[in-house]
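Same chain as my last thread, 128 residues:
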Amino acid sequence: MLCASPISAGSLGNGAAQRAASYEYCYGGTPNTVYFSRTFAVTSSVTGQRVPFEHYLAATYGFHGPAAQCITGASRAEAEHDEATRKTWFPGRQIVQVEWAGGVVDPHSGSVAHACSDADRAHGRNGC
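reply #2:
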């Protein structure tokens, strides 16, 4: 005997509502330079991006400064607006827009296994 219940659109299949999509950007810097990531969609595998962003900055720019921060917005537009506003908070510092757009962390080493592109996320490739 097979028992099945209907799945509502917009649910996880068990009746629970899906979490609304959100977007993040990350930033961190020194007294002279502040690095900002691209805005990226937060997915189930691309969460908790502060540490991966710090790894990226260290590997790419040699940055080993104070902890980076990641800011979440309810929409891409909200996150991008917040990022543009936040960039004005650092007068006199060089603002560097980096290509980082979220990444998947290797669960064994804690390092970034690979960065996720928008195309990876859109097609569910590479664990993104």
